[in-house]
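[09:14] KT: can someone run the structure on this one? pasting the chain below
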Amino acid sequence: MQDKIVEQVIEQFSKRSEVGIKKYGTTLENNNDDDFLQHLKEELMDAILYIEKLQSIKASIIDKIEQDKIDKIENEKLENS
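[09:31] RB: done, structure tokens below
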């Protein structure tokens, strides 16, 4: 059995590797000059920012849904009175 999700991730890694080789002229395997801990730290900092942004969007959507529910209930009360 094959997992389509795993296959998609593998394909994304392959494409990302190709982009990196073109951009940096080397493979990760052969690159021994970069500070990979610093790169990881910066990527994780970016990830936290992305999480914060997505949480903010989610909260806005939830607030909108809740307000729409309240508005619907109030409108139904007005129609029934």
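[09:33] KT: thanks! The mean pLDDT is 95.
[09:34] RB: yep, looked fine to me
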